[in-house]
Amino acid sequence: MSCHYPDEQIRSLIKGRRTEVVVVEGAGAMESVRALFVLICLFPVLANGLTRHYKFNIVTRKATRLCSTKPIVTVNGQYPGPTLSAREDDTVLVKVVNHVKYNVTIHWHGVRQIRTGWADGPAYITQCPIQPGQSYVYNFTLTGQRGTLWYHAHILWLRATVHGAIVIKPKLHVPYPFSNPHEEVVLVLGEWWKADTEAVINQATKTGLAPNVSDAHTINGHPGPIGSCVSSQDGYKLKVKSGKTYLLRIVNAALNEDLFFKIAGHKLTVVEVDAIYTKPFTVDTVVITPGQTTNVLLTADKTLGQYLVTASPFMDAMIVAVDNKTATATLHYEGTLSTSPITTVKVPPRNATTIATSFATSLLSLNSKKFPANVPQEVDHSLLFTIGLGINPCSTCVNGSRIAAAINNVSFVMPETALLEAHFFNKQGVFTTDFPGKPLVAYNYTGSGPTNLQTLNGTRLYHLAYNSRVQVVLQDTGTIAPESHPIHLHGFNFFVVGQGVGNYDPNTSPSTFNLVDPIERNTIGMPSGGWAAIRFKADNPGVWFMHCHFEVHTTWGLKMAFLVDNGKGPNESLLPPPNDLPKC
């Protein structure tokens, strides 16, 4: 049999690897046939693992929630988007085709992207956006990762509806470090606005005020019955069999709110967060910030019936507006009539700090022989990053001022070209590498704050040599209001070696650090009015974004980036950009 490859790019990407065709709703038949043809052609050289192909069509479709209909941007017409499934060490190729009027990028949240920063996805950080009518193939390998991650748009506020789960199974014949579940279920938590979210943030930017909060929270895209709006389509139903155990893969895809997750009458055993196995512990309430994932084991050990599932807001800064509506779903035991009464549960108060603190401090890495916690014991860079809000002058805004957000009082200014491209090709004038490693002025950070609330502006990066051991103390501030910011670092996992309330004390706080089995993750919910210390090894060359995962704070400037040098030789160096990298 003679084989002709459709194009050189596909041949070079999959040479020497097994290929699996992944069909998702909206993918064209010709694409599937083409990929199957490649599989047949490569059959004699099946060798080094699996390459999985997905096609994401970014399209607009109408959706009805809360008794009103609006157009939303989606992946393949689905909300939430299709689940991307793979195994540890698989290579994934996702062709993203932009059919909407907005520029688009997709971020693969939590994927390490070892040497493949071009596929990370944040607009103007690692790539220019995919313009309307254009496409881009994201090509990355899930090196040493297994668990639940997720993907989402990383431009404008499109991730409100452009998001979905990434499920990474262990390698074949490698078991979970817990009993095999009967079934696995993805639960994506989110927010829903009746209005167009782009109009919401554009209006806020114009006025200089905070944007309107969402109209509802959602569980797998559905808010559940709210007020007078009751529809059979408004609630998600989780079906279980009595006596069976289920692995729930929970994703918080909300734009701006931490959430409590509960199931009436049932305990949940936490076994993983952010694709890192944990020492198991049992709770009745899961606390999860935007950007985080949590896997829990649920055993259907109650009497037959229906039980309420809830997702409700956590915000212990009471002056900050939140959407107080609770999303609801139903846990439905097989054999139960749909008309049976639903066992309810009381949701935690929105300011239940003790529940959030207890959950955070219970998280520990598994730290087994097979899954060790390789915590940096010493550090080369010891950084202190203050996290908070500010107020900048704005002559066209309602009050003559605009809310800003900053790290070390620097509000990040997005460039007009991608930082990674500017770094790789040594383009001058795009960024500087003088991001401050500590506050420019020391003060009582969790007190009332300075009288001057204005922030500095700049596209400033912090420079790291390859393999540097880095400690960052994230210090919340009381400027305007203390908050529990969810901070996400691209390109790395980090260890949460310590956290506490009040101001970090470099003389006494390190004595409380856990350097043995701290939790490892990619997104941390900082204690409100407190601090968290994280450590990571800068073993991934490129430009890596660090930002608050409250979308409103990112919009206001609460973000920065690390520039990590190449190491020695090609295996420690950033790969060259792909030929189809979008242009600005």
TrEMBL record:
Q: Per the database entry, which stretches of residues form a coiled coil?
A: none
Extract the Pfam families matched here.
Cu-oxidase (PF00394), Cu-oxidase_2 (PF07731), Cu-oxidase_3 (PF07732)
Q: Which InterPro entries match?
A: Cu-oxidase-like_N, Cu-oxidase_2nd, Cu-oxidase_C, Cu-oxidase_fam, Cu_oxidase_CS, Cu_oxidase_Cu_BS, Cupredoxin, CuRO_1_LCC
**EC main group:** oxidoreductase
Annotated CDD domains: CuRO_1_LCC_plant (cd13849), CuRO_2_LCC_plant (cd13875), CuRO_3_LCC_plant (cd13897)
Q: Which GO terms describe its biological process?
A: lignin catabolic process
> For this protein, what does the record note about how its cofactor is bound?
Binds 4 Cu cations per monomer.
The protein's annotated catalytic reaction(s) are: 4 hydroquinone + O2 = 4 benzosemiquinone + 2 H2O
Give all residue intervals belonging to the Plastocyanin-like domain: 60-171, 183-335, 451-567
What EC number is given for this enzyme? 1.10.3.2
Give the location in the cell: Secreted, Extracellular space, Apoplast
Q: Which UniProt keywords apply?
A: Apoplast, Copper, Lignin degradation, Metal-binding, Oxidoreductase, Repeat, Secreted
Q: Which cofactors does it use?
A: Cu cation
Annotated Gene Ontology cellular component terms: apoplast
Q: Please give one Gene Ontology molecular function term for this protein.
A: metal ion binding
What task does this protein carry out? Lignin degradation and detoxification of lignin-derived products.
Q: Which NCBIfam families match?
A: laccase
PANTHER family in alphabetical order: LACCASE-4 (PTHR11709:SF370), MULTI-COPPER OXIDASE (PTHR11709)
Q: What family, per the record?
A: Belongs to the multicopper oxidase family.
Query: What protein am I looking at?
Result: Laccase
Q: Which organism is it from?
A: Dendrobium thyrsiflorum (Pinecone-like raceme dendrobium)
